[in-house]
Design brief:
Layout lengths: L2 E3 L2 E3 L11 H4 L6 E4 L2 E4 L6 H18 L5 E4 L3 E4 L10 E3 L3 E4 L5 E2 L2 E3 L4 E5 L5 H5 L1 H9 L3 E6 L4 E8 L2 E9 L3 E3 L7 E3 L8
Parallel strand pairs: 6-10, 11-12
Antiparallel strand pairs: 1-2, 3-4, 5-8, 6-7, 8-11, 9-10, 12-13, 13-14, 15-16
């Protein structure tokens, strides 16, 4: 239901054909991402395998980072990017599946201001193009040091690490391998259990 405030209609859902701002985003029901003015609906709900993979990765990351002054968050958790550095009115809002934030100053009540050190996205059919395109470019532009794309369909993990401002370091790990972080040298995640619920 739209609400009238001083004669202006507040959207309950965005018009996905239009360009939107953070101020628009604040008025929407549900869970939405905003990248370059484009909106992306965060539903439908993820599959059980998707949630299992996120849970396994969260456990591995939480175990690794617990004594390293980094904080691990799982979705729904908003990450804000700003072209001007003004996080009162950010330009882009995303909800990565997993975010590792290594600066406590970035964490606010509403989420993370600026680039986490590591972001992981677990693909689903509805998000694959966005994760490989819009999010890849966004994370690269704003300096996310490492970006993992987990592909349950092909049972692979793509790891991208920044070098000279772009994701030049690229590794593809397959099902029988151990995922090796480029930025956090001791971070390793065996893949053999990642795609199998037992």
């Amino acid at each position: 239901m739209n609400v009238l405030v001083e004669g202006a209609s507040i959207l309950s859902h965005p018009d996905e054909k239009k360009t939107h701002t953070y101020e628009d985003w604040l008025t929407w029901d549900g869970s939405w991402e905003l990248i370059d003015g484009k909106v992306f609906n965060m539903s439908p709900a993820p599959t059980s395998l998707h949630q299992y993979i996120v849970g396994e990765l969260y456990f591995a990351l939480r175990t690794f980072f617990q004594n390293r002054n980094c904080y691990v968050f799982m979705a729904p958790f908003d990450v804000f990017f700003s072209e001007s550095g003004d996080f009162q009115s950010p330009d882009h809002i995303v909800q990565p599946d997993l975010s590792v934030v290594c600066s406590k100053d970035q964490i606010s009540k509403r989420g993370c201001n600026g680039a986490p050190a590591l972001i992981i996205e677990v693909l689903s059919p509805s998000t694959a193009l966005k994760d490989f395109n819009e999010k890849f470019n966004l994370y690269q532009k704003f300096g996310v040091q490492e970006y993992w794309i987990v592909d349950p369909g092909n049972r692979t993990v793509h790891v991208y690490a920044l070098q000279d401002g772009s994701y030049q370091v690229r590794h593809l790990f397959t099902e029988q391998e151990v995922v090796q972080s480029s930025v956090f040298k001791d971070l390793q995640v065996p893949m053999n259990k990642l795609f199998h619920m037992e």
